[in-house]
Amino acid sequence: MDELAGAASVIYLAIGGNLAGVLCISDPPRDEAAEAIRMLRERGIRHVAMITGDSQKAAERTAQLLGIDTFFAQVLPEDKHRYVEKMKAEGRRVIMVGEGINDAPALAAANVSVAMSDASDIARETADVTLRIEDLRDLAELRTLSTQLMERIQANYRFIVAFNTSLLATGFFGTLAPSTSALLHNLSTMAICAKSMTPLKRA
Known about the structure:
Shape: elongated
Number of helices: 8
Low-confidence stretches: none
Largest sheet: 3 strands, parallel
Radius of gyration: 25 Å
Order of helices and strands: HEEHEHEHEHEHEHH
Helix content: 40-55%
Number of strands: 7
Mean pLDDT: 89
Strand order of the largest sheet: 5-6-7
């Protein structure tokens, strides 16, 4: 029957130990999934993996359709966490995206976890980030915003260290009065705070 089901996942129904029926379930990927993966790769995501409870053939077909690098099929809910830990042990930084109750342990284990807006309550509670809309392409935008935010934080840090160091040096050599150094320090702090409050993305 598995051979006849093709890319569908097969569920067997039994009554009194006897086979009563077979259900073939097809769970197609989201329409925007392929584009979302392409956008993520353009933003530096090098390896995309899929962990699913679907059959081997169904997972293989989806992976080929979307260009997924690695997939783990017929995974029990409790094993999703193990696969995330395995990838972390291989030295990977794991971003886990999920929406179901069964995804919660894996979301908790990932370096960064993202829940869809229509995810279960426990998945949203466990995840670090919840997408505002039901669109996987928001992952790419999230990646862009997070990268820009880290660049801003690092630039601000470098400026603060360099500026405060120069103030200490001028104070040490007597070039500036202490009151002037204190004023410049406070002004630079206010300027950095004002810059940090500007939006990363224009509306």
